[in-house]
Specification:
The complex is a heterotrimer. Chain A has helices spanning 51-58, 81-87, 103-108, 123-135, 151-164, 181-198, 209-215, 233-236, 239-246, and strands spanning 11-18, 28-35, 40-44, 66-71, 74-75, 88-91, 169-173, 201-205, 218-223, 226-231, 250-255, 258-263. In chain A, 31% of the residues lie in helices and 25% in strands. In chain A, the strands form three sheets. Chain A has a six-stranded mixed sheet with strand order 6-7-8-3-9-10, with helices on both faces. A four-stranded antiparallel sheet of chain A has the order 2-1-4-5, covered by helices on one side. Chain A has a two-stranded antiparallel sheet with strand order 11-12. Chain A has one domain: P-loop containing nucleotide triphosphate hydrolases (Rossmann fold), CATH 3.40.50.300. By secondary structure, chain B is of the alpha/beta class. The chains are: A alpha/beta, B alpha/beta, C mainly alpha.
């Protein structure tokens, strides 16, 4: 008896090309990516390199001109929204919560993909909320109003909401932006913990090279929509590659077996 | 202004006051006339007579018109309400021209306790006061549109079709035909 | 507990509407009174239905355009309705239902225009453009209406404005039946959109990622809220503040879950309008105030209080 085929990767982009209507150049060209369960994958690149476009294509919000994006073996844009939300939890870059809410209520919104049109929330939904809050170390925040939370706490709550969806894949778009050191470290530790304990696959867009290098299993480095390098952090983040993509001189060091980059100061004469 | 009339006569109200001032400034003789009630007819006639040089004729007409206003009203034998608009119901109250005509024609305006010349009232008030006639300003012979509306049929006069259809030309505003208007009204009420 | 309280308030408002009025009807004769059965009862019910519809439409709209200051009458519908009414009067269209039908058609025309404007960015309905478009179309229609009225002779045309502010004078069992048959459909559509509306509060992108079919929801909510408002204007003119203030008061007690907010807004809106109409009929008896004035007089101080709470909280 032949062994069953391996499960498809949670997320797979194959040679994707996309251009926004009316744009001069492609937002993404020949981009490929694969995220499986228990994998922590990051996408890096300077501003405008196409990172957010990649997320949109990955989730079927945009359809690539060339190539395809597939979630769990199915073309991303063909997934019904509610079904997709049961598989993929997303923490987008921006959230503009209009009305004041308590933490527990906002995390409960993550259960909506599992609720029928007229059905009420069940005990299992509230349990899922409690578990999600616990996993994010945010149970003590459950009854707080959102506006009273610090940036770091709010970010944890948003991750908890995505977790409440009970997804297999977690997608985070620049989650560490505007967080201070302690909270950003805390966030990366949290996400790595979820990968290890809950077996999630994670795709994270970030601009923080060093943290991405420390925590992730594989990286994709983009520059102006093109893939420059992909693979384990040690292979991707070489001095030459980083200096070329980010147009700045750096020195590389190794911490915990992972490359870390130190930006160098330009001498006065050669400063632009 | 291009026609350069000898005299401009304006109804005394609102924007006409400003218009009058502007015309005077340009050198056109303008006069504002009050013409709201029967009592205004005499003085208005005299003013016009004076300005146009027909004073004697005007005086005799004015005397007749004064008597119209001055006559004590007969005892009222019937009741009515003037409905100027149906949604919302707007009635004519005390002291307006139509109210005076009604009194002179021997009909009691059920809303003569309302101090304003016109006012919005609830339909149920009309029903409760149960006027025998509903008077509307209308140039057609057909009953008004609201007669078919279900809520208006709560009013007995509407159910019975007791409408007084008063043409706008004689009943809209006091004028030399006011005397005729009163006769017309009396005749309609006698039906 | 709070539902019971709301129920009591609503019942009280309805009872007062039937018991109180400028025509003195002694309590003993209430059940036999013509005035009560043919005028006050349908009027109370119509007030409840219209007020409730405006409350729900307002709540839905505020969630859709993500603006807590949205009022159903920002959609441009009242301008369209006024223009329809003026055209009907100007053309001397007869018939007892000429004015409401013309107003409804005018409102629908405005709705169509604003919807078309809202799609201007592509296939996606842009709520900000809906708001701006609504204000613009409403103002445009109002300008045309004013032009027609000032150029034309008939004093009747000026009465079109009275009608627009008019209120519930046209209430009868006929109009109650009409609204009772019409309103449940858009109301049901809005109620069914409760969960997506909750998600929409996080923003369209986030709502989509949490499973909402955002485009379909926006279209449905906009059309349902507009259809409710169009019917309200056609039947009772422009009654402001109910759609703006009632959802806020309901949120203070029931929070933001539209599943409970929408029904609360319906009952609350209905009670408020029934109560306001009773005041309109009784405070200056035998005269009557336009109910839109009463709702503004009640609504503005309540709104100011809410704003204070909002900024302090």
């Amino acid at each position: 008896m032949t062994p069953p085929p391996p499960p498809p990767p949670l997320l797979q982009l194959s040679d994707v090309r996309y251009r926004y209507p009316g744009a001069e150049r492609d937002a993404l060209t020949d981009v490929s990516l694969s995220v499986a369960a228990r994998q922590f994958h990051a996408v890096l690149g300077p501003n405008g390199s196409g990172k957010t476009t990649l997320v949109r294509i990955a989730l079927g919000a945009l359809t690539p001109f060339v190539g395809q994006a597939a979630v769990d073996g199915r073309i991303a844009s063909t997934w019904p929204r509610q079904e997709l939300a049961r598989l993929v939890g997303v923490v987008p870059q921006r959230e503009d919560n209009l009305f004041p809410q308590r933490v527990r209520e906002t995390v409960l919104l993550g259960r909506y993909p599992h609720l029928s049109l007229w059905g009420r929330e069940r005990a299992e939904d509230h349990d899922a909320v409690d578990r999600a809050l616990a996993a994010c170390d945010a149970q003590h925040l459950a009854d707080r109003w959102l506006w009273t939370l610090s940036g770091g706490e709010y970010q944890r709550v948003r991750v908890a909401r995505a977790l409440a969806q009970q997804p297999k894949l977690l997608v985070l778009d620049e989650p560490g932006m505007s967080l201070d050191l302690k909270h950003e470290m805390g966030l990366f530790e949290l996400v790595l913990g979820l990968v290890e304990t809950q077996g999630l696959g994670v795709l994270m867009i970030t601009h923080d090279l060093n943290l991405a290098a420390r925590f992730t299993d594989s990286l994709l480095l983009l520059d102006a929509g093109r893939p420059v390098a992909s693979g384990v952090p040690g292979d991707v983040l070489t001095q030459q590659t980083v200096e070329t993509v980010f147009s700045w001189p750096v020195a590389m060091q190794t911490v915990d077996g992972r490359p870390q980059m130190i930006p160098l100061r330009q001498p006065k004469e050669s400063r632009p | 202004m291009a026609r350069r009339p000898d005299l401009v006569v304006l109804y005394n109200a609102g924007r006409n006051v400003t218009a009058a001032k502007q015309l005077e400034r340009v050198g056109i003789h303008t006069v504002l006339i009050d013409l709201n009630r029967l009592e205004d007819l005499g003085p208005a006639t005299r003013t016009l007579g004076r300005l146009t040089g027909f004073e004697v004729v005007a005086e005799s007409l004015a005397t007749v018109l004064d008597s119209l206003a001055g006559r004590p009203p007969p005892v009222s034998t019937t009741s009515l309400a003037f409905v100027v608009w149906d949604n919302p119901p707007i009635i004519i109250g005390h002291g307006s021209y139509l109210d005076q005509l009604a009194a002179q024609a021997g009909a009691r305006n059920v809303f003569s306790d309302v101090a304003a010349p016109s006012a919005q009232v609830s339909l149920e008030t009309i029903v409760a006061r149960d006027p025998q006639w509903i008077a509307v300003l209308s140039d057609s012979a057909a009953p008004p549109g609201f007669a078919k509306r279900r809520e208006w049929r709560a009013v007995r006069a509407v159910r019975d079709g007791h409408f007084l259809l008063l043409p706008g030309s004689s009943f809209g505003r006091p004028g030399p035909r006011s005397g005729e208007a009163i006769q017309q009204l009396r005749a309609l009420l006698a039906r | 507990m709070r539902w019971a309280l709301l129920g009591i308030v609503a019942a009280l408002a309805l009872v007062l509407s039937v018991v109180l009025g400028p025509a003195a009807v002694p309590l003993g004769e209430l059940l036999r009174s013509d005035i009560v059965w043919n005028l006050r009862a349908p009027r109370a019910l119509l007030a409840f239905l219209v007020g409730g519809s405006l409350g729900v439409a307002g709540a839905g709209l505020q969630a859709l355009v993500r603006n807590p200051l949205a009022d159903p009458f920002l959609l441009g519908l009242s301008g369209g309705a006024g223009l329809g009414a003026v055209v009907a009067i100007g053309l001397h269209l007869s018939g007892p239902w000429a004015l409401p039908i013309a107003a409804f058609i005018g409102a629908l025309a405005a709705l169509g225009l604003v919807y078309r404007l809202g799609l201007i960015g592509g296939a996606s309905l842009d709520p900000r453009i809906l708001l701006l478009g609504g204000v613009a179309i409403g103002a445009f229609a109002a300008a045309i209406t004013t032009a027609i009225v000032s150029l034309a002779d008939a004093a009747e045309l000026r009465n079109a404005f009275l009608w627009l502010w008019g209120g519930l004078s046209g209430a009868s069992w006929d109009s109650v039946l009409l609204v009772a048959l019409y309103a449940p459909i858009p109301l049901a559509v809005l109620l069914a959109a409760s969960r997506p509306l909750d998600l929409l509060a996080l923003g369209e992108e986030s709502a989509g990622y949490l499973g909402a079919d955002v485009e379909a929801v926006k279209r449905r909510v906009y059309l349902a809220a507009s259809l409710l408002t169009a019917a309200a204007v056609a039947v009772s003119g422009v009654i402001g503040f109910v759609g703006l203030v009632v959802p806020h008061i309901a949120r203070l007690v029931w929070g933001h879950r539209h599943r409970s907010l929408l029904p609360a807004a319906f009952i609350g809106g209905g009670a408020l309008l029934a109560f306001a109409d009773t005041l309109a009929r009784t405070v200056v008896a035998p005269r009557e105030l336009p109910v839109g004035v009463v709702t503004a007089l009640i609504g503005v101080p309540v709104f100011a209080l809410l704003l204070r709470r909002w900024t302090i909280a």
